[in-house]
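Hello,

Following up on my earlier ticket. Below are the two sequence lines again, exactly as submitted.
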Amino acid sequence: MLFYQIRLAFKSIRRNPVLSMLMIGGIGIGIGVATVFVTAHYLFSLNPIPEKSDVLHHVQMDNWDPNRGWDDNDPEDIPDQVTYRDMVNLMKSDIPTYQGGSFKTFLYVYPDPEMGRPFKKITRMCFSGFFKMFEPPFQYGSGWDLSADENLEPVVVLGPEVNQKVFGGENSVGRMIRIEDRDFKVVGVLDHWRPFPKYYDPHNGAFETAEEVYMPFEFFRLLKVRSAGNTSNWQEFDWSDDDQYLASEAIWIQFWVQLDSAPQKEAYFSYLNSYVEEQKKLGRMQRPTHNKLLSVMEWLDDRGAVPEEATSLMAISLLFLLVCALNLIGILLGKFLARAPEVSVRRAMGASRFSIFVEHLVECETIGVLGGLLGIAISIGGLEAVNSLFDNEFSFSLDGNMLVVSILLSLLAGLVAGMYPAWRICTIPPAVYLRER
Amino acid sequence: MLSMTAVKKIYRTNSIETYALSGIDIEVREGEFVAIMGPSGCGKTTFLNVAGLLDTFDQGSYLLDGQDVSRLSDASMSRIRNEKIGFIFQSFNLIPDLDVFDNVDVPLRYRGWNAKKRKEAITESLQRVGLSGRIKHLPSQLSGGQQQRVAFARALVGEPSLILADEPTGNLDSHMAEGILDLLDEINQDGATVVMVTHDATIAKRAHRLVRLLDGQVVEADSVPHRSAFSLVESL
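Thanks for your patience. The regenerated structure is below:
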């Protein structure tokens, strides 16, 4: 029966091609716009590391001003980064499988003069655990090992762009590269890596590209660099004094641990609580104990990683689709009521009100799906436009899930547009129209 | 087959009540061919709509094939229309953008038969009305007589026990009308009960029995079989 109803729907669509195209176009534009923004929202909220998101944990503790919390509006919210001293202390734990703090900065890279001029590049100062935890893909080589952290070996991992600029894209593992005023040995070259969002450091641009240079954390002292990301503080101290800076309550490090099992997580959380209690005894962390050990998705959710604008635009686009669907009600009503004599004949032949309702709803859904297909084509173009607007920094595209969502939205739009007209036509008194015919 | 007792149908507009049927009593036995006559506005079509479960009534009782149909759901009435009743209209009421085959297919689609069974029934029905060679024609490509034959094929395809015909020859010339009436006769001889509304006494003569309506009531119901009843008609 469904095929019969679809066949009737296509007959009806062909009967008034201009009107039908208007309706399909209306739904198509609505679906296209909605799909672009629903896709953007969806991509913003995707799990960036599904295979490990449950075992990677972001560490937080409340070292803030005892008299004034981190967020006046939300007492549950606590500082989202850690201090240098806390990172150093926490890393003494042997509970996590891997661990490490990191921060973003910018360093000058000096290629061979024949290859180009010096350039400043986004850099991550990190520990060997960074590569073990976040598993960026390597084109050549690998990350450095623990001994390089401990002995402060001058090693570096490059991103593909820097490797292209400095070494012409060749396998540069084992070669030396000058960064700031020192030479570093290349131990690995990353392949294209674009965590989306940049979950390990959403504080400093959740949708920024990944760093192009990675080097052992403690080189920040030798290179005399500081975080180029957010640094927050609540105490007075001399910022120009490195010792005061590192001993301060200033937070600027993102600290992550890998905890592979529930007991391991439980043990680490207990360790964290004990650590905070010890610090309280030393006069620090005088606020109520409130430590957080959040998995990747919990952390992103806590951060509100999906931009409010994306949520607002998605809501507006869905409203726009609703308006498109509501606009069709009048057209469909007129079209269906003009068919009252034919419907009356069908009623006389044994069609129930429900059959007539379903027949007309199928027609609306057919228009909705055709509009949806047009909308998908529009949204593909729309997403390309969004990508180019942001210099292809993002790579929004439709995946299977979003195609399904688009079709479901089309069906929903068809339902919204068709319910009332279909109900009206199924309730006409057939006797009246048979007589008039 | 069809038994109405004191059936009233009232149309209400604001404070005005119009009695389309004002207590009609009528009985049509199985296998009969009954003609319903009367002047315009006497309630002939309303009677046919009520009889065909296309319209409701306000008072009285109606038994169709022994079943009280006064308070049936829409789905039940639709099923009865689909399985027991075949409609033939004055203006044929074919669906213009469906070809002959698909027009005849309409009632079977609501019966849920499979494609093979439907095709066999449609082919047989179109053969019966002599239009098996026109299955791909649209109604607009057929003459009035042919269109009415398609309408007959559509009414007959589900093998209904009751045929309700509303002025079936009203839009046809006398030659075509004769053919259509022959078909009605044939259907009746095959066992179907036929109730035909007409204002034409000559056509009404083809029925076994005449029922005359006036102001929504039966004024004369001749139970004398066949032709002798029409002396009454001719005298009117």
